[in-house]
Amino acid sequence: MPEQKNPKYHLITYGCQMNKNDSERAAALLRGIGFSPTVRPEEADFILINTCSVRQTAEDRVYGQMKHFARLRARKPRLLLGVTGCMPGRDRDGKLSAKLPMIDFFFPIADLPQLPRWIAEHEPTLVQLTDAPEDYLKISPARQTSRQAFVTIQTGCNKFCTYCVVPFARGLEKNRPLAEILSEICVLAEQGCVEVTLLGQTINSYRAPDSDNFSSTNPYFSTGSRVAARDAMSSTGHFAALLWEVNQVPGIERVHFTAPHPIHMTAEVIDALALPKQVKFLHLPVQSGSNEILRRMNRRYTREEYLELVRRIREKVPDIALGTDIIVGFSGETEEQFEETVELYRQADFDIAYIAQYSPRSGTAASRAFPDTVSREEKKRRWNILQKLMEETVLRKNQFLAGKTVRVLVESVDERGVAEGNCEYMKRVRFSSSTDHRSPTTTGDLVEVAIMLAREWVLDGKLV
Ligand code: SF4
Questions:
Q1: Residue nearest to atom 8 of ligand 1 (CA)
Q2: How far is the C-alpha of 27 from the C-alpha of 10, rounded, in Å?
Q3: Distance 123 CA to ligand 1 centre (A)
Q4: Taking 70 as the threshold, does the pLDDT of residue 225 lie above it?
Q5: The pTM of the whole model exceeds 0.85
Q6: How many CA atoms are closer than 13 Å to the CA of 88, on its beta-carbon side?
Q7: What is the rounded CA–CA span in Å between residue 228 and residue 449?
Q8: N or C: which terminal CB in the chain sees fewer CB atoms within 10 Å?
Q9: What are the start-end ranges of the E strands in 217-268?
Q10: Ligand 1 within 6 A of CB of 286
Q11: CATH 2.40.50 fits domain 405-463
Q12: Whose CA is nearest to atom 1 of ligand 1?
């Protein structure tokens, strides 16, 4: 059969930053076997959706889209369709794939290296087979920008919060070797990357499988015999030590990570938040302010312990911006228990929160053990209360930055010359890209900006 010239793929990504990083790996793999990307599904020879299972609506969207693509295939019979990510990962009983009979490949992301072979088996004319690494994390992601990069250091999760599908969708916690992570970051820095965001589901539980590779000068790596030190290091010691190593990489100016779990926020990790290249932002999911709800969620901390953590974090980095995740209307949540969450929000004085209305997910312990008793209207009402509180708080908290100078990594400059990017507090900053005194700033620059006016969702400033 003649080889098809320039086959195209169309890749759709839902969900978190880790899914986006996984899609960058899928893109690299597909390019490696001769595909090029297209934003137009009707032009594609292969359509792949990288799915999220956190909410039912995210899965419903995939069913709808795949029905549409199946109609496209009626006109283009050799079109291949694939689904990866959380949906296949959690589909132990085959019920989800049964709803997608039109799909050619339905696979968890860890099976990504098999994809070229499967495509070749279906359509031998489409691909030029090359060797793919066995571990999908060893595939170098095809990143969209050279100045910022996501670096996955851990996949899966051992925590089994009762509402969450991640341990089923992504499996148990698996940590990448330190040497592999540092080598990836060094290459990124040589290519001009200045900001890395380390990714993991409970990132601060990271434990290096090759801890001998920590530098002897690493302050979070105890002195004395290497073996003794390795044994003595707690897993959170490993994460603080990793942050220190990343802080030493020449060229990297900003280090960010997400998402830590409160129970692994030990003294070493809190100390490492003050390392010179760390951003002044921490996203620390709390989920609820009620001890009873936290217990039923299997979060393994109390509201008092969480608030004490916030106090210690602010003691170490007084101006740090704090973000969180909250679920309202979890099974059986009473008005009083919701009020405890509102009270905790005030006490923690968060800068930002991602507030979700609870939706039971099949296969989770919560969906089996606790009935979904809070009505949809009541969940929405509670969501509105917290959302309003966040909007009031965020404006007040942003005003703290008015008159201060921050460093902004420029992500875009529009046709009017207005530049935008995040500062070290991970807040959006907008400013004119040119001044009388210097050449205009462009995308990728790291520049100092004086904040003139703080608004809810953007800080207006001017180049220093
Ligand atoms: S810590 Fe809990 S919420 Fe986070 S990924 Fe693990 S099980 Fe899910």
A1: 164
A2: 9
A3: 39
A4: no
A5: yes
A6: 19
A7: 47
A8: N
A9: 254-258
A10: no
A11: yes
A12: 159
Tens of pLDDT, residue by residue over 343-361, are 999 999 999 999 999 999 9
Tens-place pLDDT, residues 430-453: 999 887 666 778 899 999 999 999
Instruction: Identify which of 202, 354, 359 to mutate to test ligand 1's pocket (most ligand atoms within 8 A of the CB).
Output: 202
Least confident piece of the model among 144-148, 151-155, 244-248, 377-381: 144-148
Tokens describing residue 54 = 């956190």
Tokens of 325: 């995740």
Residue ranges of the chain assigned to CATH 3.80.30.20: 138-399
**CATH 2.40.50 segments of the chain:** 405-463
Domain span(s) for CATH 3.40.50.12160 in the chain:
8-136
Q: Which pLDDT belongs to residue 262?
A: 98
Q: Please tell me the CATH code under which domain 138-399 is placed.
A: 3.80.30.20
List the CATH code of the domain at 8-136.
Answer: 3.40.50.12160
How is residue 67 written in tokens?
């029905």
Q: How many CA atoms are closer than 13 Å to the CA of 65, on its beta-carbon side?
A: 21
